[in-house]
Amino acid sequence: MENTSQHSPEDLLKLENQLCFPLYAVSRMLTKAYQPYLQALDLTYPQYLVFLLLWEHEELTVKELGEKLLLDSGTLTPLLKRMEQKQWLSRRRDPRDERSVIIGLLPAGRELQKAACHIPEQLLGHMGMSVTEFEQLRTQLNTLLTRLT
Amino acid sequence: MENTSQHSPEDLLKLENQLCFPLYAVSRMLTKAYQPYLQALDLTYPQYLVFLLLWEHEELTVKELGEKLLLDSGTLTPLLKRMEQKQWLSRRRDPRDERSVIIGLLPAGRELQKAACHIPEQLLGHMGMSVTEFEQLRTQLNTLLTRLT
DNA sequence: CAATATTTAATTGCACACAACTAAACATTG
DNA sequence: CAATGTTTAGTTGTGTGCAATTAAATATTG
């Protein structure tokens, strides 16, 4: 009859009973697990996410990147400028709407995909999860993400 | 016979097939969901996590805080100094081991607990999850956290 | 016990995140 | 079409995160 979960106001305030903490911690630890692979490519984790989108779409506006990554221009503009400096991508105004900035993949950025294509498999190993567990967790998180946005 | 998950190297590089992205995004969106409640208390999210531990333990060394939150002194030291300035906690060297710094809850910090004690319930509502779902996800994340640390 | 190694915080430097604000381009509306 | 409103990036300032280094205190070891 013992219930492992505690629901009194005080117990709800314990770190171990929070959902937010494991989310926060796992997110950071997973980023850290990517580190050795990304560092070899001179990439940061959010830069890698930008590449995941550009490798698929070739060209995206800052607004579209922001919508997909849930990041605003305050984060993206400096990040994209750093990536531009490395010749990975180009930034240019859309001639049909000068408010928009189009981010385009450059050859050096396209080249990186070859070096990055095995990262997901390697990380999967790091996490030690079955494909079923993996997809279950991804589905749950995506559902939660929809509710939070 | 259709398989919704794609396992070719190219598909594994799509953002939508990553586990890391929903983790990263949910973590940030959840932090943002805490924002209005924490802002009312002049707290940031990691500062709130420090309080969750201090409300339970009263006194902890920087090392212990770091072990529990998976943060290092490079993050904690400036964060704790800001909290010290607000008179929420004290920082003093341990007389028995001058290397350690003991973080102690001050009255103003203890007071905050009263104002914060309903935050978890309110967030639970925000997430729109059943208690079962909540605990299932928390368990999965904690397992993953163990593997990653 | 002296030399060396380890532990613990603090510091430095860089890259996010994000709120708040600005400025330019475009859209709407009377 | 002029005035107003909206959209889009960029800017500024603050607060994390974290790797790498430093410095002081303690532990270990020959």
From TrEMBL, chains A, B:
Q: Which InterPro entries does the entry mention? A: HTH_MarR-typ (IPR000835), MarR/SlyA-like (IPR039422), WH-like_DNA-bd_sf (IPR036388), WH_DNA-bd_sf (IPR036390)
Location in the cell reads: Cytoplasm
Gene3D superfamilies for this protein: Winged helix-like DNA-binding domain superfamily/Winged helix DNA-binding domain
Pfam families hit by this protein: MarR
Mind telling me which residue stretches traverse the membrane in this protein? none
The HTH marR-type domain covers which part of the protein?
Answer: 16-149
SMART domains referenced in this protein's UniProt entry, alphabetically: HTH_MARR (SM00347)
Predominant location category: cytoplasm
Q: What is this protein called?
A: MarR family transcriptional regulator
Q: Provide the taxonomic classification.
A: Bacteria, Pseudomonadati, Bacteroidota, Cytophagia, Cytophagales
